[in-house]
Amino acid sequence: MPQIEVQGLSKNYNRGPPALNEATFRYEGSGAIGYLGPNGAGKTTTLKLLTGLLRPTGGRALLNGVDVAHDRKRALSNVGAIIESPEPYPSQTVEEAIEMVSDFRSGPSRSVREEIRALSEKLDLPPLDARCGRLSKGQRQRVSIAASLVRDPQVIILDEPTSGLDPKERILIRNLLNDLKRDHLILMSSHLMQEVTEICDQVIFINRGDILLRDTVQNVATRFRTRAVDVEFATPIVVDRIKALGPLVQDAVVVGERRFRISFDGSDSARAEILKGLVGIGPVLSYQNASLVLEDAYLALMQGGVAGESAA
Amino acid sequence: MDPSSLPSDTVQWWTAVRRQLRFYLRTWRFVGLLIFVMVVTTAFTALSIYYGDSGASANSYLYGVINSLPTFGIIIGAFIGGDAIAMDFGSGTGYFMLVLPVRRVVLLLGRYAAAFLASFALILVYYAYAIAGASWFYGLGGLPWLDVAESIGLAALFALAVLATAFLFSAFFRSPAISIVVTILVLFLAFTILDGAIAVTGVEPFFSLPYSGGVLALVFQSAPHHVISSVASGRARITIHTWNPYIWEGVVIMLVYLGVGLGLSSALYQYKESKG
Predict the structure, then answer these.
(1) For residue B23, which residues of chain A lie inside 8 Å, CB to CB?
(2) ipTM value for the complex
């Protein structure tokens, strides 16, 4: 079974504060884990330590049970990784770049051509005979993703995999990762809460080298329930009618011609009661959380607003 | 993928050699160096044919032509190997290559072998012109083939030593372009200046890689190991020491550069981190 594990993993650059401070987590089996945090939080450092691009100053990083620092080759044998912005050799064609990765993973093989064709269709790669040096950033990123997936490694480590991609390309990658997570273990860092919400089953929040919270997306949603909803009516109404619904409505503001944002205590019962009241005011077109749950959790954690929360 | 199904280091090394060689042969710098070598050697051969060979034998002709080869060898080696390690830490290619399940030393040795093959191909072009010019004057039967073979063997060793040194320099830089420029400056200009500066001291430049390259031509025509001459400089006279390496001495210097350069660059490549 695919495995990603870090045990008290630390990294110090020169004399500054630790970029990663005794991080510990372990995942086994299939699924997708989102790794969230602001710039400089330690996300990329963790992923670089996991792939042997950096050496730890303390602790261990293990992939499929093999310590990366001790035996990089064996540890990475079943791992596909995208870290920072990888670039194939500019003079290589798309096919050569992916084939080279396959050769290193499992030796020269004729069957890889078929696999490359299949990846090309899935990822909408540029023509396979195009030189990588002439591709756009998004195209190169997709070639790198294809290369990381060739020969079907069971562990996939992705550092902001959709950065530099346009919305269509992002949807393509999101769908691919949702397919892959059924029988692969994916660890991906991202700034995009929407992306993590749509792909990941578990999340890790990190800031200033410390892991702040580690849990399933569902548990995080329960813990950091959204405290505002957006409602849209089919016809214009006066905001005071919403405010008059009672004490459950803490505040209501106009955000559009027929759209309003309502603040409340965040409980499910209040959410249901408010909806009942709104339906009585007029025909409701939509009623949804004002922001993504992960976004709320992220902001609360980064502002230190959740005292005592610890890694699950 | 089971770790036991991973290709052996040897298979991965061969993969690295094939892929890297294709990469080198497709670069503009290889094409540029090929044109450069061809233009210079064509001009030299044409001038020799036009004015006639001033030497008395095929050996002296070959000595004259091959005497310049170390300079070309250094330029070729610096351009081809000068960014060997820097390219993985100053551009995104490192993030593409260094996350693969392959030992870094295997990658480096594959790159080294590919750089050698690309450099040696250019050196052989130089020899081809030298042999063509010599055979124009003395016929193919009149050429000292054993000496030619020995010189080519020494040139291969020289290329290996230059590349190992270039690889070592490239480990200290992040920018591939700066790495190439510094390698050329050190290997070409710094040694030339140093060799010139110590000519007045009487110290043999046994530490100099370009000095060892002198043996490539010396196999065709022996020269005294140490020549002392005196030149006037104003009212004073300066004693100039000219040195020619023994063949064994040149080989030892090249082997030291090869061993130290390749050993240190492998160690640096192994432990270098992708911090950027």
Answers:
(1) 89, 91-92
(2) 0.86
